[in-house]
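[User] Once you have settled down, look closely at the record that follows, and write a paragraph about the fold.
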Amino acid sequence: MRVKFDRDTCVGMYQCVAEWDAFEKNLNDGKADLQGSEEEDEDVFVVEVPDGEEFDAKFAARVCPVDAIEVYDDDGEQVV
């Protein structure tokens, strides 16, 4: 499972930070950061979800008010 995070879309509500430890507040930019991620495109970051953290990753995506977070299963199908 992997997460794709569009940081440009992020508006800094930080609801994802409360739901999954992989997200952290970046108060300087007013946006969240996705720890351990790699930049796939400009301001689009991806990271593999560690075992046992799938629920938290999905919930972080669900609570994002601007849909800046997408979750994909191992087959590449979007699940959130």
